Amino acid sequence: MGKWWIALIALVSSTVWSAPQVTFETNLGAFTVELNQEKAPITVANFLHYVKDGSYVGSQFHRVIPGFMAQGGGFDANLKTLNTELPIKNEAYNGLRNDTATIAMARTNNPDSATRQFFINLKDNDFLNFSRQNPGYAVFGKVTKGFDVIQKMATKPTHNVGFMQDVPVTPIVISKVTLTP
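That's the Peptidyl-prolyl cis-trans isomerase sequence above. Prediction below.
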């Protein structure tokens, strides 16, 4: 086999077995998340639906709590609720933990209610993990580049807007989303 054959195998292997990555550009900078399709296939497919349909563009991080997490994806820059697909099954039992720099699905008290909102953990949040007593919050990837942007979000002042708490005073808006297969 020639070197071209080895190069072709390496290229195919990296394409077939590499995890998808999504880069978000915001008015505070860019960050990239690597998705874990193996451990969270339903959640990743759901998240990628919103990435591919372009509806995360123009949405904002509407809830940022220092020392906890930054949540986004569900509201536009004017805090208008964005359209969602049907809720998905909670995959929090997948073994992935809500550790620093991981991305997880936000949900209501109903474990199987996640749609489009996600959050990024600013620290290890063990109380969000699956257990026999806790349905948990499904982690489906991790920030691999630009975690400092997420940390910067937590330094911005927040306020209450109607029933919403911890809303950044200056909206942190997603301006571009790029998928790298």
